[in-house]
Amino acid sequence: MEMKQISETTLKIMITMEDLEEHGMELKDFLIPQEKTEEFFYTVMDELDLPDNFKNSGMLSFRVTPRKDRVDVFVTKSDLKEDLDFNDLSDMEDYSGLSPEEFLKALEDNFMDKGDIEAHHKLEEHDKTLKEVDETMTEPAKEVAEETIREDYTHYVLAFSDFDQVVTFAQGLKNVSVEGSEFYKLGDVYYMTILLYLADEPDYYANNMYARFLEYANVADRTRPYLQEHATILMEEDALPVLQATKWS
Fold first, then answer.
1. Which H or E element spans position 166?
2. Which one of 63, 87, 102, 248 counts the least CB within 10 Å of its CB?
3. b/e for 153-185, b at 16 or more Cβ within 10 A?
4. How does it assemble?
5. Which residue ranges form the domains of the chain, and what is each CATH number?
6. Measured between alpha carbons, how far is 75 from 78 in angstroms, rounded to an integer?
7. Could you give the C-alpha distances from 7 to 15, 62, 214, in angstroms and in order?
8. What pLDDT, in 10s, does the model give residues 143-193?
9. CA 247 to centroid of chain Cα atoms
10. How many angstroms separate the CA atoms of 60 and 156, rounded?
11. Do 70 and 7 meet the contact criterion of CB atoms below 8 Å apart?
12. Mean pLDDT in residue range 124-131
């Protein structure tokens, strides 16, 4: 485990999957308010050398963000003299087994306002490069450059009518790896952006993968820039791997 102080009131604790396993924890344990989760946080706090201003500081709130190979826990202190508040993790009732609905509820509660904003590097670099091409190149040169960029990367926006369809999509693509993925909600519709790296693949790879995606998803009627501006982002990176790795009941 590693700890980094972000500000006077916020710590970031990075917990590897090996750390979780050693403590008998799973990713889904963070999605419900239960005694096991509370005990784990007390244990982590005992094991780490907390800054002095976090010791006996009153109420602490926790926000959990799953990553591809770890869990990031953001610890925020307040001046209220109360016990640890674990309600920030979720407001769901106890359940037996993780259902898609419960997982989605936890995502909406915990992730859409998270403060650890890390750019979705590959997609952002792709968009930035295309923008620079637009602004600096003549039309013939621009066409050649854009074609070269698209040969290396392509991205798709997929739509899902409900969260069950998202789960089916992730389960149906268990063995598929992508360069990047984001997960959004807009109204009652869910969206996922998928970035594919094409440089080492045959010419037909992109079309084959898109056809495979559409076996489980729908063609989106929104672009990624539109979703970035208007939709709620539930996972801003590694959305597909996280959903693939989750065990559904």
1. helix 163-172
2. 87
3. bbbbbbbbeebebbbbbbeebeeeebbbbbbbb
4. Homodimer.
5. 2-110 (no CATH), 121-245 (3.30.70.1950)
6. 10
7. 19, 15, 44
8. 444 444 445 778 899 999 999 999 999 989 888 888 888 999 999 999 999
9. 16
10. 40
11. no
12. 49
Phi, psi of 26, rounded to the nearest 5 degrees: -125, 165
141 contact partners, CB below 8 Å, separation of at least 6: none
Can you tell me the distance from the alpha carbon of 181 to that of 241, in angstroms, rounded to the nearest whole number?
8
| Cα 53 from chain centre | 30
Amino acid code (one letter) for 157: V
Beta carbons within 8 Å of 191's beta carbon, 6+ residues apart: 157, 158, 159, 160, 183, 184, 185, 220, 222, 227, 231
Count of C-beta atoms within a 10 Å radius of residue 10:
17
Chain centre distance of CA 163: 15
Q: Which of 159, 234, 156 is nearest to 195 (CA)?
A: 156
Kindly give, in sequence order, each residue whose CB lies less than 8 Å from that of residue 36, ignoring residues fewer than 6 positions away. Answer: 25, 29
Q: How far is the C-alpha of 41 from the C-alpha of 122, rounded, in Å?
A: 33
CB 17 within 8 Å of CB 70: yes
Beta strands 218-219 and 153-160: pairing type? antiparallel
Pairing of strands 180-186, 189-197: antiparallel
Q: What pLDDT, on a 0 to 100 scale, did the predictor assign at position 105?
A: 59
Name the DSSP letter for residue 160.
E
Asked if residue 228 lies in contact with residue 221, where contact means CB atoms within 8 angstroms, the answer is no
- Residue 153 one-letter amino acid: Y
pLDDT tens per residue, range 226-235: 898 888 888 8
Q: Residue 112 and residue 186: Cα distance in Å, rounded?
A: 12
